[in-house]
Amino acid sequence: MSLIENIIRPEVRALSAYHVPDAGGFVKLDAMENPYVLPETLREELGRRLSDVALNRYPVPSYSQLKVKICTTQGVPAGFDVILGNGSDELITIVSVACAKPGAKVLAPTPGFVMYAMSAKFAGMEFVGVPLKPDFTLDKAAMLAAIKEHKPAITYLAYPNNPTGNLFDADDMVDILRAAGDSGVVIVDEAYQPFAQATFMPRLAEFPNLVVMRTVSKLGLAGIRLGYMSCSSALLVEFDKVRPPYNVNVLTQAAAEFVLDHVDVLDAQATSLRWERTKLIADLAALPGVEVFPSAANFLLIRVKNPKISADGVFSALLDRKVLIKNVGKMHPLLENCLRVTVSTPEENRIFLDAMKASLDS
Ligand SMILES: Cc1ncc(COP(=O)(O)O)c(C=O)c1O
Known about the structure:
Layout: H1 3-7, H2 10-13, E1 27-28, H3 40-51, H4 64-73, E2 82-85, H5 87-99, E3 105-110, H6 114-122, E4 126-131, H7 140-150, E5 154-158, H8 170-180, E6 185-189, H9 193-196, E7 210-215, H10 217-221, E8 227-230, H11 233-242, H12 250-260, H13 263-285, E9 290-292, E10 299-304, H14 311-320, E11 323-324, E12 326-327, E13 338-342, H15 346-361
Parallel strand pairs: 1-11, 3-4, 3-5, 5-6, 6-7
Antiparallel strand pairs: 2-8, 7-8, 9-10, 10-13, 12-13
This protein binds pyridoxal-5'-phosphate.
C-alpha cells in the first residue's frame, strides 16, 4: 500500500476538493456575493481602524464585544448568545465534529448546500439526503419518515435553500423540529436571511434543539469570513469546546465590529438587491424557453427549456462572453438543465441578460 492509502481515510480519498473556478476577467455571478462595496468615507475610516489593530497579539478568545454587537444588531433574542466561526462553513464543521459519535447520521433535503454532506463525511458520519418535491418544496412525509428511521444527530434546513432559492414552509419546519426532538439538532441555516426577511431566530426559546446559523458573507462581507450561530446555552457550551480558540482573526473582528456600527448601509444594499431580484425575475421569465423559480435569496435558479440549446450550452456561451454563473444541472436529478445566477447591480444584470439573449439566439 502507498503512503496515501496507508494514512488517508478512504472516504476522504473518494471525495473531490470543493472546486472554486478562477473568475479573473469575468462578470462574477456564481457565488452569491453582494456586488456593492462600502462607501468611500466608511472605507477610509475602516482603514484607519484596521491600522490600529495589534497584529502581534492573538485575538481575545471570548470575542465578547463582537458577539454583543452581533446579538444587538441581528435580532438574537435576549438571553441567547452566539458562537463565531471562520465563515459558517467552519460552524458546520464544528457541529459535525461535536456530534460525530460512532454511527451518528446527518440529514438534509437535496438538492441542498454541498458542505452539509461534505462536512458529515469529513467527520466520519453518514449523510442521508431526502429529495425535495419537483417544485423544490419540502417532502414533509419523507423527511419525517427519514428522521424516524435514521434518528439523525443533525438535520439541516437552509432557509432559503441553496441552490433552489425558495423558503420552505415554516409549519413543515416546525414539525421537523418536533420530530427530531431530543434525538437531534435542527440547524436552520439563514445564510440568505438579508434577502428573505424571514427567520427562526425569534423562535429559539420555543425549541431546545433549534440552532440558527447565519453568515455575514451574503450581506456584503464574504471576504472577512465570519459566521455566527445561536442556540440554547447548554448546546452552545458543547459546540464551543470544539471551536479552535483563535478561529476569528483580529482583522475580521475589527472589520466586523466597525461595519456592524454601520449595518444600515448593508441593509440598504440588500434592499436594492431585492428590487433588482424582482426585475431580473421578470426579465428572465420573458425570455423564450427559460423557466425562473421563485427566490427569497440573492440568486435565481433557472431552467433552460429551449429546444435549440441546453443549459450546458447556455453556460458555455455565457463563459465565452465572460459571464460566470453556476451550472448546477449535474448536482442532482431534480436540477436537470438548471443554472444558478447571483442577482447583482443593474449594470451586471444587464450584461448577464444580454449574454443570455445572445446565447439563446445563437
Ligand atoms: C446555505 C449556505 N450556508 C452556508 C454557506 C457558507 O457561508 P460562509 O461564506 O459563511 O462560509 C453558504 C455559501 O454559499 C450557503 O449557501
